[in-house]
Write a structure and sequence with these properties.
Eight copies of one chain form a homooctamer. In chain A, helix 6 links the parallel strand 7 and strand 8. Chain A has eleven helices and eleven strands. By secondary structure, chain A is of the alpha/beta class. Chain A has a five-stranded parallel β-sheet, with helices on both faces. At the C-F interface, helix 2 of C face helix 2 of F.
Chain lengths: ~250, ~250, ~250, ~250, ~250, ~250, ~250, ~250
């Protein structure tokens, strides 16, 4: 069943020409592969628009390799986040197409190039130390087909470094703001643009930063409307959500 | 200066036909009114696409009334959130157009009807007790011009109540999920749809709910990609961000 | 004094044919061995139905070995949790019957095979990274005589991977649900089955997972009735309690 | 479809004589009533063995009344927890069978008497102030058909008040231990009996009790095996889980 | 002993013309009045440069009145913070000079007018709801002799409302920044001026504001150097410290 | 069995002239009265040296009255802490000897006057607002037979108010230090005396005091040896422990 | 000035035969040695009854050695806590009298043997893993001249291991209870003895133990009167306070 | 544009002889260098009175070296905090003027010697373990041109070690107080001097110190007026703010 067929069925149900029962039939046929330690969801691309993403942290190198092996065999694009160089080497040994983005800690195998949307996604960091999280966001967005505008080290302690980039930022369709410490950049950007801002707190800082809690709380309580938040250091989540919005028509 | 003129200037800068200096000139002329206790930002609608929203909690009834008076005189649409019935009466006394949405605690004066986008926004709650927050989100989205699909009390303890609504939910462009206690609904919905999910934790619950912290943490750590989060009980923020995404072209 | 004798005495007290004083006499004779650094409770099997379990973390290898030596000499079954490979080797050196379950980190010496109850215990994990905790639960349950149904990596982001296993899950008498991050799986399973669910939060995740706090709070505030919770990463506790329930007649 | 038919179908699937597809068909036909503000799950009794329980806190009196009206019309037993006297009066006005347990804050309408299991459930509190939570647990268990042994104010500061009740406690099949402050009673009871202990922390105490957090943490980290925990003040959850275990055969 | 004499003695000690013993003699003669429930420190003005300030919260009206009575009798200037209108009336009944600043919740009796320093102190708030805390800071600073520049409601969501006031702000010698929610204003101001910034987090906000914790953490982890922080809602402390710095020569 | 007999028995056991079994016999005969909602421990005075203390908060007035009635009938001294004026009136109605210490919130009935030890207990507070907690400590100590030296409002902001009382403080055998906010007084006193200091954090303060957490943590981490800590606002606990130490011989 | 002279002076002041001024003179002459990185307080033994104790953690080996060198030269007894084996070797190189208690992590140099009080101090642990903290307490108490009764691994999961030691425990003058996880042992012991209990929470445990917070909170909120608490893992503090009480006459 | 010209412009604006527009023109011309991973703010010295400070933690050695290279090329003074010895070596390789303060972890290149103000800054620590943070503060202050008075290990457990230094401390213009554990020193110093106190909590301590939270909270809730606080272990921030105040005229 292709995405088009699925969509048609859902529209029929909405219009009353198909029944709820028919919709539920769809669920029954969702395929997955049971590896014992992992159940790979081959249908996610159709259901949610994107292939399953492998969160590599906490998995063994052997498990990561096995999951890649199965997914590649279905000709899916595959993305592995929080990956180590060892995991990359293991994956590379079974598929020469594997690419490693070391700063972003992402392993990617891209079987088919996604269509590129018209607009860009901006990825802005407050500091230099936030760059690894930013790269996770930017590379994720790029692998999902988007063009990315990177603006790094533009924190509020020297706000003119941000102001002169405003026109370029405003030309993007979604803005990802990445900051540790007090996380004020999300509020400042949110007050200057009319685009959705996805804020990513980072664990950069010490003492009362409490591993990113300060930035997280600051972003959640932002006085600027239009700001939503993802988990601390979750560059992937921000890149994924931004791509979802950017690809909308 | 109208929004069109502003946009044109920004494009020129991007293309190199205008200078950064010209962009900054724009900033200088942003108007506001200083009431002593409040500085009303008349330019926000042009800059961010929406008028200033008044957060009424913590303001006196007299202050709220004064802010409405000034904003209405500029023929802006005005939205006041977290408002009391007393505040509404005070605003009503100066403008008969004021409307009060009591469950959502919103005062609205709508001078011009916003254009309605093609797609709907879904607002789903886990329980009945989450409805006031949901109404804040739904009314906000509606006042900003959107159509809203409300699905209330569809928590994961009886997941079939959600499943048979899936086709209708998937036809929306953005999904707002509102839940207290363990907030699991956001992850479940996020795993079933390919649309951005904005999750709103609520302070519904007791004991280890800790006023919404449990739901907040659960939503931030959701295993489903595509979920972003706003502050506890922040129905307004979710409705505003959802509208921003829904109105995109 | 055997368990039968103890039980008879207690029943007599309940029926009034023995006095409270007689019950307390029992307490006086509970035997234990004082090793200086540990007091081994030889009577626990009679009193609580199970032998003492050794929590190895925080003990030295020498202490673990000594405790095993004493307990084995009484022909008890012995279980050591949170054990290292070094501890296992030390125990093995004194008893060739010692077995090491490396993923579960359990050392076991089984002198007598427990009776196997009719029903199985289900152990379900949300992700692959939760498997070590799941194995601690499953191996504990098996060592206490139960059959275990393992379903790993069935998190709510792809709920169909769980749904098609429902009939098998519902045939078990107790369900152990193990999840990190937002811990939503416990609520979803709790809403689909009519069996006691023992939820184990794990420290899997990062950022706002806070070492398992998110999952813990989510499980404690679950909207599904019938869910009880044990400590973060406490696979042993879940396996032990599940066995207690499963062995009931 | 009756529970017997459902069970038969599930067994057939397990045995391979029915397909997974047939099991999923079942899900499609789960009935519920949509009241707008609530979706009442009429099928829960068959699916989980118990009717839906109404958590009244956070609902309006009118909403509670409406939910009772619909559920009673299906001849279900209905339980409303965290109810006020006003809610009771509203329910009473539509059904004279409604009963209010004021200390437990429970409204009950019992259309059919559940079968009484052979064994009792013990409900033990550390102090007098824990009694309201204990009554919520005890009344819940009784409404679900169980006999309850109540032992109140038996905290560890005077442990002999507990010891002489041991024989009676050991004759129960499940033990609910309810304690605020340091919650030590759960560990002490857990060390003396061979039955599952469900521990309920209460918000009784002041200062470093932090509304029940101290007792919650103490119970979660209990050194006695066989102890599982529910949310702070969640007498209902404990009573419900205990009943589930006690009714097992 | 006057301040001049004290200063002379200290200089002598530093220069070696007086001994440490002589300095300690000074301590012995510090006078105070013991009221039983309070020990009034008459020497604080000489020792720390300012009279004792009465923190009225938690004291009874009668106690506040008594403390004012004793201090006034020594011809001291007296400031009572966190005072109620009842306390003011009681103080007014014994001294007609008492003044009440209701928004700042301060009772003041000023026997001698302090000298006015050349420079002003700026008090800036992010929102209208922060004004009560700001007034506590501003009135404190004024009572200690300083001129104050008030700029209220200049939060980062509309940063141009702050930018056009920059020249005036930079002409002040110390800046007090008062903000709730995410507290970003402190960092933004700190990055634009070369004066000490004293940041006051306020309890304004809801949900993840956690009564001011978000703003507090954000201010403590500010990426702008030159920012120090006082307790949540501590307008008095900020006004006092700012005055100390502003009066320096 | 009197305390003397009990003591003799214990000594015999220690000396080997009685057996452990004989000691345990003692436990069997500990008397208590079961009121249903409370189990009154008549033996506590013998076992721990003091009668049972009633923690009245969380109990109904009727329950408090009943407990007093039973305890008085045994001619015990009775102390009820955290009591309301209503509870006092109820107790007074059954025994004219009842006394109410309103600031300390203690109801006392004293049937026999305890012996007065040679040394005094010092009770020192940092501020006036700490006095209610101090009175709970002081009255408790006095009811248990001790003489108390009260020094109130001697916080470290004016340390000379403490220094001139040092000789008198050092003449006491135990020191209770009571402070809210930063709780520094405990460390300062601990560094100046060679007597055990029992520190009581109070919930006095606001903002980052977090209801006494600041003072609690400060006292626990005191750099002065000899400081032990009780719960926030637990004046009773401090008075009780101090009395225990002061009465030692 | 000897302790006797100091005591005489203080008594004179109390009796009015010496003045406060004379007492303060004493303070002026307190000697210390300034090493630049440390100020050694030679007078502490006289002032507080015990020599200065060196907290070695966070100091360099060189600094520890230097502090020992100076203190030994005054013929003081010296105790260094939280010391490493390297520090011990460095101290040993300058004084052959240095002794290292490796489990307790204490370096001691004892120049004069303290007098031994009549009564013992009991040190009881809940588990084997608590022994290092217990040894810090026990060795501290012994170095300060006391005899210690050690009872290790007597947690509440097997309470009979404690009960048969009760007579011996009751013969001690102070009881130190050391427990991690839920810390219930402090309450149980506190309910069985009439001696001051000093409770030491340990960081033993995992998950919701939160590095000792669970045990700390449980001990602070103990329902047994007579229990005071020291910092997590602070064996030294407990041993020191216990010695202070035990040495009292 | 020099600082003088900037100042003149600002004064003109204030006096009305220049317009707000002219002030904003200034912002447009603020220079910075974009290195891709960092945006170096060359204008900060003019705008805030000090050059940009490099926070080295979280940056790679290569990044630190590049930032130094660019900044040095502008003849700025440069300060790098939280630097490693590797970073220092890399910087040294490009400029022989680089100096490393190893205890303070600061790399400095000083092109022009700042003017020395008349008064000193006092840096006081409670313990020896606080010295690294103190050195960060002291070296920062010295590099910014100030003279520093260091007083280390003067905690409140031996307060006479502080008292005899009071005259010298009072001769300073700003006091930095650095303490871990309970942080009481800030309050004590604040009560004895009439100068601004900047308090720095340190992560020194264990258990309930919680990495500096205890000291942080204690300092924020200090009962002494005139105390402001910076982040845990933020010696740099304290030194910077102190310098700002000390250099004022």
């Amino acid at each position: 069943m292709t995405a088009q067929e699925l969509e048609k069925l859902l529209i029929n149900i909405k219009n009353g020409t198909s029944t709820v029962e028919e919709a539920l039939e769809v669920l029954k046929t969702f395929p997955y592969t049971d590896l014992g330690f992992a159940r790979i969801d081959h249908h996610r691309e159709i259901r949610t628009g994107y292939p399953e993403i492998i969160y590599c942290a906490g998995k063994t190198t052997e498990q990561v390799k096995e999951i890649f092996r199965v997914m590649i065999s279905k000709e899916n694009n595959v993305i592995g986040t929080r990956a180590s160089i060892e995991m990359y080497k293991a994956v590379k040994s079974i598929t020469p197409d594997a690419v490693f983005y070391s700063e972003a800690r992402i392993i990617a195998v891209q079987k088919k190039k996604p269509e590129t949307p018209e607009n860009r996604i901006a990825v802005i960091t407050a500091g230099t130390s936030d760059i690894p999280v930013a790269e996770e966001a930017a590379v994720t967005a790029e692998l999902l087909g988007n063009e990315v505008l990177r603006i790094y080290d533009a924190g509020v302690a020297g706000i003119h470094r941000l102001v002169d980039k405003l026109p370029e930022i405003r030309s993007c369709k979604v803005i990802i703001v990445i900051a540790g410490m007090e996380g004020a950049l999300a509020s400042v950007v949110g007050g200057l643009v009319d685009k959705p801002v996805i804020a990513v707190p980072t664990s950069v800082g010490y003492g009362a930063s409490f591993g990113g809690i300060s930035a997280l709380l600051a972003m959640l309580t932002s006085c600027s409307a239009g700001v939503t938040v993802v988990n601390i250091d979750n560059g992937f989540g921000a890149g994924f959500s931004a791509s979802m919005i950017n690809r909308m028509k």
